[in-house]
Structures are given as structure tokens and as C-alpha cells.
Amino acid sequence: MEETKKTGGWRENKWIRGAIPALLLHCSIGTVYCWSIFSQEIGEYVGWDKSAVEWAFSLAIFFLGMSAAFMGGIVEKDIHKSSLIATICFTLGMLGTGFFIWYGGAHQHSVLALVGIFVSYGCIMGIGLGTGYLSPVKTLMLWFQDKKGLATGLAVAGFGAAKAIASPIMTKLLNSLSVNSVNEIGDGVWKMFLVLACAYFVMMFVGHLLLKKPAGWSEPQTKAKGDNIFKTLKTKPLTNYIGIWVMFYINITCGLALISQEKMIYKCVGLAASVGILSTISAIFNAGGRLGFSAWADKLKDRNTIYKLIFILSIAFTGLVMLTGGIKNGYGNFFFVAIVVCLLMFVNAGYGGGFSNVPTLLSDHYGMGDISAIHGITLSAWAFAGLTGNQIATLIVKKTGEFIDVDGYSVNPVGYQNVLYFTIVLYIIALLMSLLLVRPSGKALEAKKAKEAAKAAK
């Protein structure tokens, strides 16, 4: 196979057939995280509260995870079919969202418009997200078998960096496409969705055409069936997989809980003027965590070490902000503001690192045979976290503390501080899972045996 790759030109080039199409797919679907840029404007334009419209994003994350879980078998059998499904569903979802925003603007308070946005952005686009997220991952691990973490980290970093790349483009489109109407920005939103749907269709379709597994790779004869996957998972105690699933779920839940309140926390500590640049920096930390932690894991005997590190540092930063009351006491205090910013930046990095390491951790434990299907099932954790993380954080902020005026913004310092009590408990549970339930991988055990053999030979 190596010789074929050397002589096959661009048709067998791991960058053209693996990395570039993965980035084209992930940089497109990763724009789902740009929702906060225009959610307020959508709500005002269609006549619904922002809290009602927000469910579109939660549904998108839910369908992302669940479609990945159920589509893993298709991805395992035919990456071209799965990447084409992703391209069609994602762009149709964007077109549908644009249409129903337009309809809602013409028919204020329309239930049909709201449901249409939920179905388009949440369900149809969510299916494209899950299938598109999963499609290039195994292919990358096959092309970069000696550096699987670096390869998957590169693609998943594209998903994380998409927000930083697309945010200024979307903002410019919103302003340039708006005309005088009931809501100027809202009028630009539906047009923006139509323009972006066309652009992302081209990007994803090119990625779909380029994506290809390396020559010489033969799939197992039986693959991606539920009973076979269960047998694969049973090669180790089932508690091992449960531990991986739960710690993955917790990392996403805590990440979403804090990231969803990030902008308001910055305003709370007096950084309202810097929210835009801080959001961009946090997106860079998210992408950097995806690439950096996964590349680092390639050098470790056991990739689970990365999760232990993420949880320990998350507990340390969260505990420091809790002990100092950094959020509620931060306004005007440079030290408190600094540790709050450090916490949010690390949460973004750890959130991204958790995503990029899970497929390679699973492959180390269960092999490459059914990895797409197993990875897809594991992404169901993302689905449930999407319905719990930001929603629980919002509930805590609404039900505890009180809203006060800070530099003209209505914020709840005590409420944001109380979210940390929720996240630190979950981080501690995740660390215990990582320490007690997740066994050393086959790679780690082989390294341990080699070390013991070398020691015995001396």
C-alpha cells in the first residue's frame, strides 16, 4: 500500500484524499457554532423571543449526535454515500432555515415559521452535521496511521476554527445584505443563509469528491452491524466503554454550560468592549485544543492520560475562580478578571481536545474495524449534552442570584458563579471515571510489556 501511495500521484496523496476534504467538510459544518451571532436578530425578525429560537441550536446538536450514532454503519460501508448525504442535508437545512426566516418576517409570530426553523436548522441540518462530522475521521486515521491523533486533530480543529473564520464573514454579510425593513439585520439573515448555503455546498461537494480511503485497505467482511459492534465492545469490560462515554458526555456538557454564558460573563467582569476579540481568541483556543491535545496524545502510551489532564486542570481553574469569587467580584480587579479569562480559555481548549481524542482513544481500545460505527454511537453523548449543558446553565442563571446593570448590560454575577458549582461536580465525576473505569489501551499494555521485558533482560 505504501508503494501505491508513492506512485499514485494526487489520487493516492494523503493530504488531497484525506486532510483537505476533511477540512472542507468540517470547516463548513463547524459554522453551526456561529448561531449566537444571529439568533437574537432571527427572534426579533420572526416575532419570537430569543429563548424560543435558541432551541434550534439545541436540536441541531441533538440531531448531530443521534444521526452520527445511527449513520455510523453507512459511514463504515461507504464514505462517498455518507459525505454526499452530509452535503445535501447540511445545505438543504441552511436553505430551509433561510426560507422560514423570510416567511416569519412576512408573518410575525408564525408557529409554522418557528417549527420550520427547528426542522430545517435543527433536524435536517443536524443530520448533515452528524454525518459530515463522522465521514472523514476513519479515512484520516487510515491515511495517517502513525500519527492518528495529529490527523483527526487537524480535521476536528477545522470544525472548531470554523466559528473564528466564518464569524466576521457572516457579520459582513448581515450588514451588506440588509435593507430598510421592519428589522434591518433580520432582513439580511435570510439572505445570508441562502448565500452561505450555496458556498458551503460547493466546499462540501468538492470535499465529497476528493475523500477516499487509501488503496490496499480492505474492510472486514462483517462490519457495522449492531451485534458485531456489541461483540467488539465486549472485548473489554463494558464498564470501560461506559467510562469513555460518560466522561465524553461530561466534558461536552461542562463546556457548553460555560461557553453558552461566555459573552455575558465577559460583560459581567467589565470586558464588554472586548467581547468580539475574546470570542475569536476562545475559538482559536478551541481549535488549538483539538489539534494540540490530539497531537500530544500520539506521543503518549495511553491517550486516556489527555483526559485526566483536561479534567484535573479544569477542576483546578474552576476551583480557583470559585474560591476567589472571580466572576461576581471581578469587575475592576485585574487578577480576578485574568483567572476568569484563563478558565474560559482552558474550558474551550479542553472542550475541543475531548472531541479530537475520542476517535483515536476508541481505535486504541477496539481497533479500526468498526471504528466509524463505534465513534458514531459515542457521539450520542454530544446529542444529550446539547440538550442539557447550555439549558441547565441558563436555568441556574435564571433561578439563582439577581440581574443587575453593569455598564448598561443586564447581568447576573451570582448566577454565572453558581454555574461553576454544577460544572466542578461533573468534572470530578469525569476524572473518577477516567481513573477507575477506563482501562489502559492495547497500545499502553504493549508498551508496558516491552518495558518490563527490557527491564528483565538487564
Q: Helical percent range?
A: over 70%
CATH fold-level name of the largest domain: Growth Hormone, Chain: A
What portion of the residues fall into strands of 2 or more residues?
under 5%
Cα distance, first to last residue? 38 Å
Radius of gyration: 22 Å
CATH class of the largest domain: Mainly Alpha
Question: How many separate domains?
Answer: 2
CATH architecture of the largest domain: Up-down Bundle
Q: Superfamily at the CATH H level of the largest domain?
A: MFS general substrate transporter like domains
Name the structural class: mainly alpha
Alpha plus pi helix count: 19
Reported for the largest beta sheet, the result is:
2 strands, antiparallel
Structure explained in plain terms:
This protein has helices spanning 2-7, 14-29, 35-46, 50-53, 55-77, 79-106, 111-143, 148-177, 184-210, 226-233, 238-259, 262-268, 275-297, 304-324, 334-366, 371-378, 380-399, 413-436, 442-457, and strands at residues 404-406, 409-411. Helix 2 (14-29) packs antiparallel against helix 7 (111-143), helix 5 packs antiparallel against helix 17 (380-399) and helix 14 packs antiparallel against helix 15. It is globular and about 70 Å long. The protein has a two-stranded antiparallel ribbon with strand order 1-2. A hairpin with a 2-residue loop joins strand 1 and strand 2 (409-411). It folds into two domains: 12-211, Growth Hormone, Chain: A (Up-down Bundle), CATH 1.20.1250; 224-449, MFS general substrate transporter like domains (Growth Hormone, Chain: A, Up-down Bundle), CATH 1.20.1250.20. The model is unreliable at 1-7 (pLDDT under 50). The chain is built from 19 helices and two strands. The protein has 458 residues and is mainly alpha-helical. The longest helix has 33 residues, at 111-143.
